[in-house]
Design a protein that fits this description.
Blueprint (H helix, E strand, L loop, with lengths): L7 H13 L5 E7 L9 H7 L4 E6 L6 H11 L5 E5 L6 H13 L1 H4 L5 E7 L5 H9 L17 E4 L4 E5 L11 H9 L10 H15 L1 H8 L8 H11 L11 H13 L11 H31 L1
Parallel strand pairs: 1-2, 1-4, 2-3, 4-6
Antiparallel strand pairs: 5-6
C-alpha cells in the first residue's frame, strides 16, 4: 500500500525554510532513532548543501542501542555531520547539544556573534519537546500526534545560540514504500491517512524476523506461526478481540499492536539498518529510471505522430 500524507501547511513551511536557510550557520535535524533513514527528509540534504548539520537521534529509550551505534557510525561518514543520541526529555543532554553547536561553528562561538541554527524534523519525532528542553520553558506545543507545530518561530537559547523552529515537514512523495510503513508504525503519519490492519501486519512480519522473542514475550505466545496474519490472529485471541462466532477483530487487534509498539511496551526496537535501507533505495532508483525511460518513450511517440 502506498502511504502519502502532505498537508498544505507543510508545502508552505518548505518554502519558508528555503528563504531562511541562507541566514543559518548550522542545521539541527531531529530524527527518530528507531528509523533514522526513513525519518530524515531528503529535501533537507538538497537544501543544506555543505552547511554543518547535527543529526539528533531522538527517542533512544525506544530504539535498539546496538543498532543506534551502527547508525551513528554510518551517518557521520558524511562530511560536516555529527550525531547525538538522546531522549528529548533529558535535561542533561541539553548542555551536550549546545556545546556541540559551538564546536560545529567555532568562528562564531569565539566571537560575540550569535550562532544561527535551524531545527528541522518530520512530524512526531519529538522536536517540540526538545525545543522546550533547550529553552527551559514551554514554547513549542507538544502532543502525541503529528503536525502539531504549524508556524515558524525564533528562540534565543543559552551560549549565544538562536534557534529557528520550523513545522514538521514530510515530503510530497514517499518513494520507498518501506519508509512509508515505518513512518506509520512509529506514529509520524496520522491514522486517518493509513490502514491500521496493513501497518500492523507489516510490523508483525518484521518483528517475527528481527525481534521474535520480544514479540512472544509481550503477547505471551508460546511459539510463532509461519505467517504474520496467523500471529495477529493469536494476539487478537489472547487480548479478547473477538467478534460474533469467535472470529478475531483484526482492526481492534491492529490498534493494540501499534499502540504498544509506539509506547515501547515491546522493548527496544529499531526498524531499519543502513544496509537494509541502501538496498531499498537502490530498488527505488531502478524504478525511478524505468519511469523516466517510459516517459521519454511516450514523448517520442507523440512527436512521431
Amino acid at each position: 500500500m502506498a502511504i502519502q500524507w502532505y498537508p498544505g501547511h507543510m508545502h508552505k513551511a518548505s518554502k519558508e525554510m528555503q528563504k531562511i536557510l541562507p541566514q543559518v550557520d548550522l542545521i539541527i535535524e531531529v530524527l527518530d532513532a528507531r528509523i533514522p533513514f526513513s525519518s530524515q527528509n531528503p529535501m533537507l540534504a538538497e537544501l543544506r548543501g555543505d552547511k554543518p548539520c547535527i543529526k539528533v537521534l531522538n527517542k533512544i529509550d525506544l530504539a535498539d542501542p546496538a543498532v543506534t551505534e551502527v547508525w551513528q557510525h554510518y551517518l557521520e561518514q558524511e562530511q560536516s555531520v555529527k550525531t547525538l543520541p538522546m531522549s528529548a526529555q533529558e535535561q542533561a543532554r541539553k548542555t551536550d547539544l549546545l556545546s556541540l553547536c559551538q564546536r560545529m561553528v567555532p568562528a562564531k562561538a569565539q566571537s560575540v556573534k550569535q550562532i544561527q541554527t535551524m531545527i528541522m524534523g518530520i512530524p512526531n519525532v519529538g522536536k517540540s519537546t526538545l525545543i522546550n528542553n533547550l529553552a527551559g520553558r514551554q514554547i513549542a506545543k507538544t502532543g502525541n500526534e503529528p503536525a502539531i507545530t504549524k508556524m515558524q518561530q525564533r528562540i534565543k537559547l543559552e551560549q549565544g545560540i538562536v534557534l529557528h523552529d520550523t513545522p514538521g515537514v514530510l515530503w510530497p512523495n514517499l518513494e520507498n514504500p518501506h519508509s512509508g510503513y515505518r513512518l506509520a508504525i512509529t506514529g509520524a503519519i496520522k491514522e486517518t491517512a493509513i490502514d491500521n490492519d496493513d501497518i500492523a501486519l507489516y510490523a508483525v512480519e518484521y518483528l517475527m524476523q528481527a525481534y521474535p522473542q520480544l514479540l512472544q514475550q509481550r503477547f505471551e505466545l508460546e511459539a510463532l506461526p509461519e505467517s504474520g496474519l496467523e500471529t495477529m490472529a493469536l494476539i487478537g485471541a489472547r487480548r479478547g478481540c473477538l467478534r460474533g462466532g469467535g472470529h478475531v477483530d483484526l482492526e481492534r487487534t491492529s490498534k493494540i499492536i501499534l499502540t504498544e509498539i509506539r509506547s515501547g511496551m515491546l522493548g527496544h526496537i529499531s526498524w531499519e539498518l543502513p544496509a537494509m535501507t541502501e538496498k531499498e533505495w537502490a530498488e527505488v532508483l531502478v524504478v525511478r529510471e524505468q519511469k523516466a525511460a517510459k516517459k521519454a518513450e511516450r514523448k517520442q511517440k507523440r512527436r512521431r505522430r
